[in-house]
Design goal:
Number of domains: 2
Distance between the termini: 40 Å
Strand order of the largest sheet: 3-2-1-4-5-6-7
Largest sheet: 7 strands, parallel
Number of strands: 13
Structural class: alpha/beta
Helix content: 40-55%
Oligomer: single chain
Shape: globular
CATH superfamily of the largest domain: Glycogen Phosphorylase B
CATH architecture of the largest domain: 3-Layer(aba) Sandwich
Radius of gyration: 20 Å
Length: about 400
């Protein structure tokens, strides 16, 4: 019996690992699947666990107020050392680029346990941007034995860094698996968002945007709301006080700007489906929203997801007030520009990434004669894209 321990700690990790945990559970005759959460983000992590019916076997509960990456790293390392000694897994699975991801990979390395990195190979090639995510994913890939790259570009990044080619497989991104699952479920309208008008869905919480960049973003959003009376701006605000203080200071009091608490994932997906444009500094939304035909404007100077830029599903616009206003205005007023983004093919997945990951694990560990699956390749046209709607 192959013992696999999946470790994650934040809402995005949980969303993207939930389909992998579900797929591992479908092979319980061969795989003993266990889940460890660090709870790096406590409340918003718990929302996602409920949506996907995940009950952790281990909960390290490391979150503290305004925690630093150093503190999270040290606490996760200590907690996971005890967990790994008790669990003795044959494989540890981690996801993406959080402090939990890197610390879990390092803890497994110290115990000489192989690591599988889901969403491996993303790069901006600037170690301090986004911070600390770029450093976390590079370090995790250096420690990993198996690299599950979401796209061919991510695989190429790994190969250029000297990663063993046989350890890399292109799977698509598991976030599309999760999105398609939840998007098919019926759901009520989101409370606090009145009907009518075009919705601009906003998320902005990255550490590198704290301070002046976030103030600029909020000022731009208020200007857009002032100038487009048919627009509603909906911003589920991250609980980090650096984010909440900036958003409240600039955006409160406008009748068509709605600041919400973080939403359960099912409600957030419903809001994505109802939106007209998505404006975000998130990584996952750059992959999710195009699957629902929503243009994405990225509030950063660069992105580790260049495939979306090439495909035309996303546009990197930075954080200067005038740039944010201009790019939103273009999509609100130029129908051709809007269609070009909304109808572009999403290059990030087909809903089968988790199946490919688990099949690859079973192949690598010689389970049940499982063949190594064919690698993911995006469809050639919008009509062939099963993620479009």
């Amino acid at each position: 019996m192959l013992k696999v321990l999946s470790v994650f700690g934040t809402r995005p990790e949980a969303i993207k690992m939930a389909p992998v945990v579900a797929e591992l559970g479908r092979h319980r005759d061969h795989i003993a699947s266990r889940v460890c959460v660090t709870a790096q983000h406590r409340q918003i992590l718990d929302q996602v666990l409920g949506v996907f019916g995940i009950t952790p076997n281990i909960d390290l509960n490391v979150m503290t107020v305004n925690q630093s990456p150093s503190l999270v790293t040290a606490t996760v390392l200590a907690g996971l050392e005890r967990a790994l000694v008790a669990e003795t897994p044959h494989l540890v699975l981690v996801h993406g680029d959080t402090t939990t991801t890197m610390a879990a990979a390092l803890a497994a390395f110290y115990q000489r346990i192989p690591v599988g990195h889901v969403e491996a190979g993303l790069r901006t090639h600037d170690r301090y941007y986004p911070f600390p995510e770029e450093g976390m994913r590079v370090l995790t890939d250096a420690l990993a034995t198996y690299h599950f790259a979401p796209t061919a570009t991510a695989k190429e990044n790994l190969l250029r860094e000297g990663v063993e080619p046989a350890s890399v497989s292109v799977t698509g991104n598991t976030v599309i698996d999760a999105l398609l699952d939840v998007a098919e479920r019926p759901g009520p309208p989101v409370a606090g968002v009145p009907a009518g008008g075009r919705i601009i869905l906003v998320t902005a919480h990255r550490r590198e945007n704290f301070g002046e960049p976030l103030a600029n973003i909020c000022a731009a959003l208020r200007e857009v709301a002032d100038n487009f009376p048919d627009v509603r701006i909906v911003y589920p605000v991250h609980p980090n006080p650096n984010v909440r203080k900036a958003a409240v200071a600039v955006l409160c009091g406008h009748e068509r700007i709605h600041l919400l608490d973080p939403l359960p994932y099912a409600h957030f997906v419903r809001l994505m489906k109802d939106s007209y444009i998505v404006v975000t500094d998130s990584g996952g939304l750059q992959e999710e929203a195009p699957s629902l035909g929503k243009p994405v404007l990225v509030l950063r100077g660069e992105t580790e997801r260049p495939e979306g830029v090439v495909a035309g599903t996303i546009k990197v616009i930075g954080t200067r007030r005038e740039d944010v206003v201009r790019e939103i205005r273009t999509l609100l007023t130029d129908a051709a520009a809007y269609r070009a983004m909304a109808e572009a093919v999403n290059p990030y997945g087909d809903g089968q990434a988790s199946r490919r990951i688990v099949a690859t694990i079973m192949h690598e560990f010689g389970i049940g004669g499982t063949a190594r699956p064919a690698e993911f390749a995006p469809p050639a046209s919008k009509g062939a894209n099963p993620c479009s709607s």
